[in-house]
Design brief:
By secondary structure, the chain is of the alpha/beta class. The chain has eleven helices and five strands. 37% of the residues are buried.
């Protein structure tokens, strides 16, 4: 029986509905002789104003990001193309998670709250032309989509989460939030949301089923 205390399920996109881009980062680092974890560490330096943060808030173009990211990499002793890193962001879709989203939508409001970039394709989710339609089909399952590149705010800034709650007209304890990054879950949890850190499809669906009281996959 659906949990009556919950009114909405809020989803991150990359790393939740798709495979984590960190797997692609790891491959890129191995192929280019970079220190393991270099890209992720670089994105933690000056996290509110670095090239990555400004791109996700829509403050710089892809070309400007490419130059700024390369400069940050050089300052850290490595050569990395920002545009090549952007190309790694869109992982394979996780069909079981998309099916769970669809089933959630039969009983609860659903929202996508995503840090993304302005790709000029009508949405800010990184995708090649051939994958754009796949992204759009998933986005159409949501009642609400809020993209950092369009609103100028990003996770983990608390105002980003508040936008979703206000748009859904709910309070934080009435929401479940899924993300693959602990730093993004912390503000949601502090506000009162039920949070699920997505480490794997099986683990996340088990926790979400327990929180909602719904069967989200075929046994």
């Amino acid at each position: 029986m659906p949990n009556p205390a919950i009114r909405a399920v809020i989803w991150d996109f990359g790393g939740v509905l798709t495979e984590s881009p960190f797997e692609a980062f790891d491959r890129y680092e191995r192929e280019h002789g970079l220190p393991p974890g270099f890209i992720r560490r670089l994105n933690t330096v000056n996290p509110d104003r670095n090239a990555w943060a400004r791109l996700e808030r829509g403050e710089v173009s892809l070309a400007e990001f490419d130059r700024a990211f390369a400069e940050e990499a050089r300052a850290a002793g490595q050569t990395v193309s920002g545009s090549e890193v952007v190309a790694l962001l869109y992982g394979a879709v996780r069909p079981a998670m998309v099916e769970a989203l669809r089933r959630c939508g039969e009983h609860y409001m659903t929202a996508c709250l995503t840090n993304n970039i302005n790709t000029g394709t009508g949405h800010g989710l990184p995708a090649s032309d051939e994958r754009a339609a796949e992204v759009e089909r998933i986005l159409q399952l949501f009642d609400l989509v809020i993209e950092s590149s369009k609103v100028g705010v990003r996770k983990p800034e608390p105002g980003f989460y508040r936008m979703a709650l206000d748009a859904l007209k709910i309070e934080a304890p009435q929401a479940v939030y899924l993300d693959d990054l602990g730093i993004n879950l912390k503000p949601a949890r502090a506000m009162g949301m039920t949070t699920i850190k997505v480490a794997s499809t099986e683990q996340a669906l088990a926790e979400l089923q327990e929180a909602l009281g719904l069967a989200l996959r075929d046994e």
